[in-house]
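Protein modeling request. Please complete all fields; requests missing the sequence field cannot be processed.
Requester role: graduate student
Desired output: 3D structure, token encoding
Chains: 1
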Amino acid sequence: MNSDPPFIHLERATLIYKSRGGKTHALAETSIDVNSGDFIAVVGPSGCGKSSLLKLVSGLHPVTSGRIVVAGQEVTGPLKISGMAFQNATLLPWRRTIDNVLLPLEIVEPHASQFWTNRGKYEAMANDLLGMVGLSGFERKYPWELSGGMQQRSSLCRALIHEPRMLLLDEPFGALDAFTREDLWGVLQKLWLNKKPTVILVTHDLREAVYLADTIYVMSARPGRIVSRNEVKLPRPRTLADTFKPEFVEMAHRLRSQIGEAII
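Delivered output (264 residues):
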């Protein structure tokens, strides 16, 4: 049993958005503990607060009540130890692939102040990551010269280039076709096994959650609460052939049932 304190600790975290139109109760007393190096997924009905949870963990939005601790420190603002990837790759169209990947090193300390001095080393790091995701030879291409899957591979490299201890993924493959999406499951698994950041994946794809995560949390309809915790016992590395195994299919069906119950 792991006796170390959790790397991510949410304690009765509540989030209420306030605007001229009134208040939106996004999360209600949500509690989660994630150990260092774990890969968890969060699933639930649309609008249940999954993305809001990532905003709280990353420090991009303050918690209304409750407590959030990451790496032993209470979260009071944006975290430098976090990498993020979203449904859209959001690559800068005027920058080549390698320069898009290097972007965090240009703006995040302690790398930013020594970026130009260490650019050669940083480029080697970027090339290694791009090679790991099958993009060797595309370093000098612009985003518009890449397919959607290639752009998302580049986005994952950008999220990992500064070697973050925590990786937050918000529907990173949601805009891709099924074949490309499944291909990138293997890419992400390979990156995680190699780098071992602590990962929170938000997804609507239950097969994706089972393929990638060690633990899957199901959230209720808004205001979001954690209604169940599911451990995935499948050995790693996982393959697409595993998605047809009875235990894999049974887990996906169980999650679907839990989400259905959470909506009622």
